[in-house]
Every structure is written in structure tokens, then in C-alpha cells.
Amino acid sequence: MTGRRAFNSKPGRRTGEILIRGGRFFPEFTPARLAGSSLGGSFLKLRGIYVGFNLEVHFDRRLIVTSRVCKISLAA
Prior knowledge:
This protein is mainly beta. It is built from no helices and seven strands. It is 0% helix and 58% strand.
């Protein structure tokens, strides 16, 4: 998955637990929890990743909102 800054994530389907890398908050793979994807308002698609949406990630007792997802691809 890529955004304005390169992000990689490996999601856990049921718990939202992920390993995420990219941007200034995640220079290397870091355990976090994916809350979901939003368009910047109060609407949140739980634990999903969608092109054009921002990710909302819980990390170190903070909520990080990423830039919009530009592309999703599967690693080989």
C-alpha cells in the first residue's frame, strides 16, 4: 500500500494489529493497531484499507492519521 509517503503494512484481519513502515512516525516496521480508513470526517470504515482514504492508526497511545492511500498491492 502506498500513499504520499511510502507506507507498508501487514494487517491482522480480526484485531486490526498491523506492522507498519513509512513516513516520519514509522521509519521501520512497527507494531500498531489499524482503527480503519476515513475521508477525514467522522465516518470510519473499520479495519479496512481503501484507495483515496486516510488510515487511522493507533500507536504509542496516539492516533496517527496518514496521507491518502494511492495504491494497494500484494507483496510477492
